[in-house]
Specification:
The complex is a heterodimer. Chain A has a two-stranded antiparallel sheet with strand order 1-2. Chain A is globular and about 65 Å long. Chain A has one domain: ABC transporter involved in vitamin B12 uptake, BtuC, CATH 1.10.3470. Chain A is mainly alpha-helical. Chain B is an alpha/beta fold. A 6-stranded mixed sheet of chain B has the order 6-7-8-3-9-10, sandwiched between helices. Chain B has a 6-stranded mixed sheet with strand order 16-19-20-13-21-22, with helices on both faces. In chain B, strands 2-1-4-5 form a 4-stranded antiparallel sheet, covered by helices on one side. In chain B, strand 1 and strand 2 form a beta hairpin. Classes of the chains: A mainly alpha, B alpha/beta. Chains A and B meet through helix 9 and helix 10 of A and helix 10, helix 11 and strand 18 of B.
């Protein structure tokens, strides 16, 4: 057992580092704002907030492991939430209510929309050989444009209240948003760990050419990856729709970069070929805990949050650089 | 004048306590071609990096032209007249030949503005010194490997070099290009420039060098005149082992061919290729670099499907449109370039071994961890891959062990036909023998093996039949008994 822990410490330094940072933060916040931070309500709020960008981060994660990136997450999320809001508006009755049975259908349609958008991304990347950063940026602009046209740039909030009521609910004290996230995360975890897909994307991420020579269906794996990312984003959009109780083409626009930050923070290599879902899950939670914690200090303006995130990201990246290159800051002289 | 231009005496270097160099000595006379040989990891690259100032030695003395050099930096090495031509040539592929040649002197002169006229003059003078014909305006990235190397040599000469160190200069060159390189080296010698030629290729060492030094695991093993050296001694110095050359003789050849190729064509690369191979045979395909041999191999593996012609596998016509098709038909392929085609360098040894059969290591579509681990363990053992832990990255291994991983990957797929393009390129002598032995035993067990190589001794030792390509056409076919190196060379050129 001790051997196992030692080995995991050595292999997953990045993840253990996140654990340490998180513990330090939790102790610090416990000492300074203990009672305000450690309350059931506070945790329930946090667990309702992070699923939206958490799901998108999982999508970005799989893309980044293959050596690509998905910049269209927010675009996919918003277009999905807008079309579903419009659809529900048409389905709902005059008093603004929707039969509960429609909700699963709405989610199914959202997943399908995400899958279609993701597949398009995948085809652009795999078949048309467009660099992922450009393909998904283009897709993002396109989808945001569609969103603006559909809404004339304004928010849609006159859709049945039933939807937000159900998603904003709690089951045995656990927010529904988190349950949706948990299902999504479990799905991605299952694909990564229990099927051969996980190993394939990691290996492919370190060299697509070698993957081709090894007989992997590179194109198909890429399309599948962007499809997964599309579905994650669409689900993220559905949670945003509930949390904001409205849909708009420019909601969550800072999530694009935030997701990338989380994924990198979680130990995924931006060059591909390396990454674990456990690290990304930790990073998702850490980012939320940092923001919530800072909000507990009224004297610190929320403007500082970007600053803290940026500092944490850079700090972790610099530390990763040192461990990846086996540089010890305090070098022992080699014995002669 | 001192007897030696360059002396490095009793050099020691440690990396985190591990001895990389254990008191080695290297002495080079003025105007001599000296060969530094040794297997991968023997410390020769470390010594070069110490000489060129990339690493600092932990102890020992270095003298150049009779003066002791205390601390060497890359810049002071160049100023002293020591130039290193690395394997990757350290050139800028996006600039023109002229810019590549002139950029250093422009930098040294601290010029901020570009004077194109000056640059052209500098470049013209540089290429004239070795009589190298090249379009100065060509983009460097468009040149062949050999031409890039020449540019690097020209650039080295511009700084009044007295000692030029070439780190395995022939690795990526064709036979013809190696000849041209040797001619240039002799020209340099005539200008009284010393050459330190780093290589582990036997025939080259004998052909070009006057004196040699051999390292093995960080120690000096032997040094002397090349004239006193023979194959056997050299191999022994390099590896510390003695080898029996084993000429392959097929034991039992199947009746029906595994693969038949009929009138296969790929526009611009090869045409009208006809051959067949049966289980138990090793077929050698050889030819110059542009003879179409690599493209033919890629077509047989589905990477570059042929335009016309037929491929029959076990008598049935097969369409090989992708590597998956080929794998399904029982074809394995060890590609030419291990680093960019064969191996996921940063990934674990284990994952590299199982990646091609990963879909079979499952229990009802799900990953079967136990089966996977057993499979990895089995192949590490079977091919005696030297690693303490299969979870280590493939990049931690030597060239020979890396090639065993690639072999393991394909053997794990249990192919009926194994195609190897340059099976022992960049592999040390010991591993080369081991890999040959593996291939011979595979054929003895009934596998059909195709070896594509321009290493003629390798082909002659291991193949039962030899096919020669020239300009995309078959120019000859010999049985092992009748083939000689000269006969094959005649058909190749």
């Amino acid at each position: 057992m001790a051997e196992k822990i030692k080995r995991s410490m050595k292999q997953d330094v990045h993840i253990w580092r996140l654990v340490v940072i998180m513990l330090i933060w939790f102790v610090f916040i416990g000492i300074t704002k203990g009672s305000k931070f450690y309350s059931v309500v506070n945790f329930q709020t946090m667990f309702a907030q992070f699923p939206e960008f958490g799901l998108m981060s999982l999508g970005v994660m799989v893309c980044m492991i293959t050596g690509g990136i998905d910049l269209s997450t927010v675009g996919v999320a918003n277009v999905t939430s807008i079309t579903m809001a419009l659809l529900m508006r048409n389905l709902g009755n005059e008093s603004g209510e929707l039969a509960v049975g429609f909700i699963p259908v709405i989610f199914l349609l959202a997943i399908m929309m995400g899958a279609v958008a993701g597949t398009l991304n995948g085809i652009l990347v795999a078949k048309c050989k467009i660099p992922p950063i450009l393909a998904t940026l283009g897709m993002s602009e396109l989808l945001t444009g569609i969103g603006i046209v559909l809404t004339n740039g304004s928010a849609i909030s006159d859709f049945p209240k039933t939807y937000a009521f159900i998603v904003n609910n709690r089951v045995a004290g656990i927010p529904v948003q988190f349950l949706i996230f948990a299902v999504g995360a479990a799905g991605v975890w299952f694909l990564m760990k229990k099927t051969t897909y996980g190993k394939k994307i990691i290996l492919m991420g370190s060299s697509q050419n070698v993957a081709k020579y090894s007989g992997l269906k590179v194109d198909w794996i890429l399309i599948k990856t962007y499809l997964i990312s599309g579905i994650c984003s669409a689900l993220g959009g559905m949670i945003m729709l509930a949390n904001y109780n409205s849909a708009r083409a420019d909601y969550g626009s800072n999530y694009t970069l935030q997701c990338i930050m989380i994924v990198v923070l979680g130990g995924v290599s931006p060059n591909g070929g390396k990454g674990k879902i456990s690290g990304v899950l930790l990073a998702i939670f850490l980012v939320r805990a940092l923001e919530t914690g800072i909000n507990r200090f009224p004297q610190i303006s929320s403007y500082y949050i970007s600053l803290v995130w940026g500092a944490v990201l850079l700090l972790v990246m610099v530390m990763n650089y040192f461990t990846d290159n086996h540089i010890k800051l305090f070098k022992k002289k080699a014995a002669l | 004048m001192a007897e030696y231009l360059f002396r490095a005496v009793d050099i020691r270097k440690y990396f985190a306590g591990v001895k990389a160099l254990d008191g080695v000595t290297l002495e080079i006379k003025p105007g001599e071609i000296h060969c530094l040989a040794g297997e991968n990891g023997c410390g020769k690259s470390t010594l070069i990096k110490i000489i060129s100032g990339v690493y600092q030695r932990d102890s020992g003395t270095i003298e150049f032209e009779g003066k002791e050099l205390q601390k060497i930096t890359p810049l002071s090495a160049i100023e002293n007249g020591i130039q290193v031509i690395y394997q990757d040539f350290s050139i800028f592929p996006n600039l023109s030949v002229m810019e590549n040649l002139a950029i250093n002197s422009q930098l040294v002169a601290k010029k901020k503005l570009v004077n194109w006229k000056d640059m052209r003059k500098i470049a013209e003078e540089a290429v004239a010194r070795i009589g190298f014909q090249v379009d100065l305006d060509a983009r460097l990235g468009d040149l062949s490997v050999a031409e890039k190397q020449m540019v690097a040599i020209c650039r080295a000469l511009m700084f009044n070099a007295k000692l030029i160190i070439m780190d395995e200069p022939t690795t990526a060159l064709t036979k013809k290009e190696v000849k041209a390189l040797f001619k240039v080296i002799l020209q340099l010698k005539a200008q009284n420039i010393s050459i330190l030629f780093v290589s582990h290729k036997l025939d080259e060492v004998f052909e070009i060098s006057e004196r040699f030094t051999v390292f093995r695991s960080g120690k000096l093993i032997a040094s002397g005149n090349t004239a006193d050296l023979d194959d056997k001694k050299f191999t022994y110095y390099m590896t510390g082992r003695e080898f029996e050359q084993k000429i392959f003789e097929p034991k039992k050849i199947d009746e029906n061919p595994v693969l038949e190729v009929k009138k296969l064509c790929l526009e611009g690369h090869y045409s009208d290729i006809d051959f067949s191979i049966k289980g138990g045979e090793i077929l050698g395909i050889t030819g110059l670099l542009d003879s179409g041999r690599t493209e033919l191999a890629l077509s047989l593996f589905g990477m570059r499907p042929a335009d016309s012609g037929k491929i029959l596998i076990h008598g049935e016509e097969a369409e090989l449109k992708s590597p998956q098709d080929a794998i399904e038909k029982g074809i394995g392929f060890v590609p030419e370039d291990r680093l960019s085609e064969g191996l996921f360098l940063s990934q674990s040894i284990g994952d590299n071994i199982i990646i091609s059969e990963i879909d079979n290591l499952t229990k009802g579509k799900l990953v079967d961890k136990k089966k996977t681990e057993e499979e990895i363990e089995r192949w590490v053992k079977e091919l005696s891959i030297a690693t303490p832990d299969a979870n280590n990255a493939a990049s931690t291994l030597s060239g020979g062990n890396q090639q065993r991983i690639v072999l393991a990957k394909w053997l794990a797929c249990e192919p009926k036909l194994l195609i190897l393009n340059g099976p022992t390129v960049g592999v040390d002598i010991g591993s080369k023998h081991d890999i040959h032995a593996i291939l011979q035993s595979l054929a003895e067990k009934g596998m059909a093996v195709i070896i594509i190589s321009d290493d003629l001794p390798e082909i002659l030792e291991n193949c039962s039949r030899i096919m020669i390509l020239r300009d995309g056409k078959m120019s000859g076919e010999f049985s092992a008994a009748e083939a000689t190196e000269k006969l094959i060379l005649d058909k190749m050129m």
